[in-house]
Design goal:
Blueprint: H1 8-13, H2 16-21, H3 24-44, H4 51-59, H5 66-76, H6 79-90, H7 104-140, E1 145-150, E2 153-159, H8 160-183, H9 198-203, H10 208-221, H11 238-267, E3 270-271, H12 291-306, H13 308-315, H14 326-352, E4 355-356, H15 358-372, H16 374-383, H17 388-409, H18 415-420, H19 429-434, H20 445-463
Antiparallel strand pairs: 1-2, 3-4
């Protein structure tokens, strides 16, 4: 038995790729890359740093002596200086110049930005694959009429594919925001203790031009285009809030989808995948609970609530920095990314295995269609000489009574028979039934769904073709 708490985000939900991004190993290896980049830039700008020192650092950039760092941290109580010391024991020639001129936020904050940027790219890949799967579903069922609902009360007819296009559009909106956030990613750079770069101005003997070159040169070496123009000791904590807002939006989209699937599964119209040997309930063997959709909702609710953390942190920072952000960031940011990673994996898995029951959909639609056809019926009766105002009152009265019989006595909907027997309408039962083709009541739903996929979604998928996988991962239920 394991004797310590283990986050279910790692053990059950999130992917190995996302989990590794937020691992200590990825973080500390990135620290070393940043120290190497700083040393290289300082050398290129004229400081007395040798290539031999840099080569020795590079030799151990991925070979971290964790035991040395951990032992040192017990003594000095400072994680960055412990790893500077550990790195220096492996690269003794470079010991004097590792972290030269920098503050802890040089490695800490730049690494956080690098991790979040890479994590957003993973989220984007997941999002693209969900969009791809869902667009196929939209196109497959764009013509299948289904009962629409407002307030979860029967409303006008739509199609299964058109309804799914609403889920799809939410994800497209999320992707637009995510793409924008990735496109403007920038590092903190090397700003010093209060963001003034005073230590570097001292190192370079007051040469402002050389100090100005530090940030763009570091950014380029780390794969970024730019750094924040100004900062305190840290990058603006508003960045964390912006990023988690996007993750919250993705969670909101997934939550809405999962709720709709749960309602549809209750109606027995559409079900999430249910594996051959899956157990739905420990007590009720017949049950097919929408467990994946419920898990999406559960995790999404956590992300939505979690997004308030960086908002409060960004609001309460004092002047150039305080340290009440750190402990919160260590929890709120990784957990939000790990949750969204799990949510999108579940979302894709559900869409990939959705089961549609057209006969049940048709039955529900036929139960309500006579009520929805009343406007068409009234118009046809007027064409035969009826009075619109008189017919409106009669059809209202017939509808109320037919609805009462369905709800109060459990009888079939006999509205058509009632109208056929009312001579003022002048319509036979056969004529009334000919109006009842559900496709006559879906409006432009099929065309809207098709045009949305072809004009909006497909260009996005084509642009991101390299991110699309061939299959959805299996999910632990």
């Amino acid at each position: 038995m394991k004797s310590k708490y283990e986050s279910p985000l790692n053990s059950r939900y999130a992917s190995k790729e996302m989990s590794y991004l937020f691992s200590p190993d990825y973080k500390f290896k990135t620290w070393r890359k940043l120290w190497i980049a700083l040393a290289e830039v300082e050398k290129e700008l004229g400081l007395n740093i040798t290539q031999e020192q840099i080569d020795q650092m590079k030799k151990f950039k991925d070979d971290i002596n964790y035991e040395v760092a951990e032992a040192r941290e017990k003594i000095v109580r400072h994680d960055v200086m412990s790893h500077v010391y550990a790195f220096g024991t492996q690269a003794p020639l470079a010991m004097p110049i590792i972290h030269l001129g920098a503050t802890s936020c040089y490695v800490g904050d730049n690494t956080d930005i690098i991790i979040m940027t890479e994590a957003m790219k993973l989220v984007k890949k997941q999002l693209i694959n969900v969009i791809n799967e869902l667009s196929k579903f939209v196109m497959e069922y764009k013509d299948l009429p289904t009962l629409g609902f407002t307030h979860f009360q029967p409303a006008q007819t739509t199609t299964v594919g058109k309804r799914a296009s609403l889920w799809l559009q939410d994800l497209v909106m999320d992707l637009e925001d995510l793409d924008y956030q990735i496109s403007k990613a920038k590092l903190l750079g090397s700003k010093g203790t209060t963001g003034t770069q005073a230590s570097f101005l001292e190192l370079f003997d007051g040469d402002h031009e050389k100090v100005k070159k530090l940030d763009p040169m570091i950014a380029e070496k780390m794969g970024f285009e730019k750094c924040f123009a100004v900062s305190g000791q840290t990058y603006p904590r508003k960045l964390d809030s912006q990023i988690l807002n996007i993750l919250s939006q993705i969670a909101q989209s997934a939550f809405k989808f999962s709720n709709d699937i749960r309602l549809l599964q209750h109606l027995k119209e559409i079900e999430e995948p249910f594996e051959k040997n899956q157990i739905g309930s420990s007590a009720m063997a017949y049950k097919r609970n929408p467990m994946r959709s419920e898990r999406i909702g559960s995790l999404a609710r956590y992300v939505i609530a979690d997004s308030i953390n960086p908002a409060i942190t960004a609001s309460t920072q004092w002047f150039e920095r305080t340290l009440d952000d750190s402990a919160n960031k260590r929890l709120s940011i990784p957990e939000a990314f790990l949750c969204v990673d799990a949510i999108l994996s579940l979302y894709r898995n559900v869409v990939d295995g959705l089961v549609v029951y057209p006969k049940v959909i048709e039955q529900h639609l036929n139960n309500e269609l006579p009520f929805m056809a009343t406007e068409n019926i009234m118009m046809d009766a007027v064409k035969k000489g009826g009075n619109r105002q008189e017919l409106h009152e009669k059809i209202r009265s017939h509808s109320m009574e037919a609805g009462r019989m369905v709800k109060a006595e459990g009888k079939p909907n006999d509205l058509l028979e009632r109208i056929a027997n009312d001579k003022s309408f002048g319509l036979t039962l056969e004529e009334l039934q000919s109006i009842m083709d559900a496709k006559n009541f879906v409006g432009r739903a099929p065309e809207q769904a098709k045009e949305f996929v072809e004009n909006i979604v497909n260009p996005i998928l084509e642009k991101n073709r390299d991110l699309i996988d061939s299959h959805a991962e299996s999910i632990r239920v």
